[in-house]
Amino acid sequence: MTKEPASDQFAARFNDAGFAVLAFDHRRFGESGGAPRQIVRFDEQIADWHAAIEYAAGLPDVDPEKISVWGFSLAGGHLFRVAADHPQLAGAIAQTPLVDGPAIAPHALRSMTPLAMLRLFGLGIADTLGGLVGRPPLLVPAAGPRGAVASLTTADAMDGDRALDPDGRHTNWEQTVAARIVLQIGGYRPGRQASRIRCPLLVVVCDEDQSVLCEPAVRAARNAPRSEVVRLTGRHYAPFLESHEQAVAAQISFLEKHLFPAVPGEAESPARST
User: Is 202 helix (H, G, I), strand (E, B) or coil?
Assistant: First the structure.
């Protein structure tokens, strides 16, 4: 997922609340460099988070001890690894995160028709083998309806357009991914790093989430020493849709609590940054 439109709605609200925001694209996606394009490599994306944190810490008027990270869906899962590796973070917000591939894979597979599943895995194998010899990636839609050959065909997979780009402003939004991801995602378990997270962690889940499910993230959050869980009504994209105001309020409250805790007897400082 690229930073536009995925982070737009929340970045603007955080900024309006007085927080500086640094948004970035993972390499091979969006406005970032890297070729071939549209390939997800988990370790590369984690390295991109490390680089973004280091870059933010060196910006003028940013307190390196007041940096928090925010991620959604797959990137929300990444944050479990990122936060575990950066105990100095002031906070981390994982919104409807993908934390346990083996836990969600059976549900994702049931959302596919048998023929579409066979074709998708065939493309995934061909894409993986082709990558070994330098062939261009075989791209599939990131989301599609049941029966489509797409990375995700759960009941809420197609909510993305109306949630993230309701006005169709992002005409260059590339909604494809290299097919090899289908062979990787089922084994990805970033939630196993929860016990290593030392910073405050907010995990936002949706009770009808069909894409990453609700309970795996709740279970992972229980293993983080300083975690909080906010449950919202709706499906995977509800924080951008019907539960948006509730999600924003909870996340801004979390940031204010942990980045700028009130000190008895002191007035709140008007200047703050993350």
Answer: strand
Q: What is the DSSP letter of 66?
A: S
Place of tokens 């000190």: 263
Burial class of residue 151 (count of CB atoms within 10 Å of its CB; 0-12, 13-18, 19+)? buried
Q: How many residues does the chain have?
A: 274
Instruction: Label residue 273 exposed, middle or buried (CB < 10 Å: 0-12, 13-18, 19+).
Output: middle
pLDDT digits (tens, 9 = 90+) for 101-121: 999 999 999 999 999 999 999
* Owner of token pair 């759960």: 154
Structure tokens at 177: 């991914």
What span, in angstroms and rounded, lies between the C-alpha atoms of 85 and 199?
10
Residue with tokens 């050959």: 149
| Statement: the pTM of the whole predicted model exceeds 0.70 | yes
Residue type at 28 in one-letter notation? R
Condensed to tens digits (0 to 9), the pLDDT of residues 115-163 reads: 999 999 999 999 999 999 999 999 999 999 999 999 999 999 999 999 9
For residue 159 the two structure tokens come to 């909510």
**Does residue 74 come out as left (phi exceeding 0), alpha (psi in the -120 to 50 range) or beta?**
alpha
Query: 104 exposed, middle or buried (CB, 10 Å; 0-12, 13-18, 19+)?
Result: buried
Q: Where are the alpha helices (DSSP H) in 34-157?
A: 42-57, 74-85, 101-110, 114-132
Q: Which run of H or E residues covers position 12?
A: helix 8-16
Distance CA 14, CA 9 (A): 9
Distance in angstroms (rounded) separating the CA atoms of residues 141 and 229: 31
Q: Is 186 left (phi over 0), alpha (psi -120 to 50) or beta?
A: alpha
- How much is the average pLDDT of 78-94? 98
